[in-house]
Amino acid sequence: MTGKIVCIDLGGTKALCGLAFQGAVENVKRYPVPSYAAKNEMTSYIIDLIDKIITDDCTGIAIGIPGVVDSDSGYVFEVTNIPNWRNINLAGILRTRFQVPVMVHNDVNCFAYGEYKYGAHFDKGLPCQTLLGVCLGTGLGAGVIISGKLHEGRHGLAGEFGSAPYLKKTLEDYCSGQFFRNLDTDGANEYELALSGNQGALNLFEQLGNHLGVAIAHMQLAYDPDVIVLGGSVSNAYHLFEAAMHARFAQFEQCEQLKICISSLPDAALVGACELFYQRYITELKSYQSA
């Protein structure tokens, strides 16, 4: 039997940490992220997060990173919204420091796999075979599940739709929290204004939905999934941009029957990180515990 796994879901502005075991997460804490810290300071921040939560019965560490990662080695190449933190052997550093197996993965892949394993997308009691987990947060990205397996692509770039050119910038600039920052405003504030009926704020969410409809159509045409699950902080405002989003992607004939749902799985990325860790290290853990 394996012990608990320290799981971290690192975002551009916040980090969630918890202890996970077989689909359940406990002791979840939220911390602000020093997004513009120097490289060594950011690594120290990750170590401090683990120190805060790790216990004697923990047998591993799993971290979701919002950037380009080699999941086989745990090497972090770049993190767009944490610009100084790149080209670092994170898994190696953490293995040396904590003396347990470490898995480093893309954060949206963790989210998608958590949704695939435990989310509310089941059809007649069976999980769908092809799922996209799309995170609308500080940035935009998708995790891809094909035939029940996580698909990363040769270079770990599968699902990185946020970097695709769109209008004058990229899809991420129009389909995530970056959309509001580019307008020198804050998505959370605009959300509160929209709830109070402010027409300007409502118009912004309608624009967001229109852009997101284009992004969703691209995802549908690329992967033709059974379902797309939306998560991330921006998805909390789904009711404000849902109509505009559906109207936009419905203009693509192939997307008319697309099934979209909002994540209802608490801490999906933490759960998914734990499951991906088990998938990779279960044999090593058995050897580790019998030693």
User: First CA to last CA: what distance?
Assistant: 14 Å
Oligomer: single chain
Report the total helices. Answer: 9
Strand content: 15-25%
Shape: globular
CATH superfamily name of the largest domain?
ATPase, nucleotide binding domain
**Which spans of ≥5 residues are poorly predicted at pLDDT below 50?**
none
Q: What would the CATH topology of the largest domain be? A: Nucleotidyltransferase, domain 5
Biggest sheet character:
5 strands, mixed
What is the helix content?
A: 25-40%
The value of Rg in angstroms is 19 Å
CATH architectural name of the largest domain: 2-Layer Sandwich
- How does the helix and strand content classify structurally? alpha/beta
Please tell me the overall pLDDT: 91
Strand order of the largest sheet: 3-2-1-4-7
Kindly provide the name of the CATH class of the largest domain: Alpha Beta
In sequence order, what are the helices and strands, one letter per element?
EEEHEEEHEHEEEEEHHHHEHEH
How many β-strands, per DSSP? 14
Protein name: ROK family transcriptional regulator
InterPro entries: ATPase_NBD, ROK
Organism: Pseudoalteromonas luteoviolacea NCIMB 1942
Family: Belongs to the ROK (NagC/XylR) family.
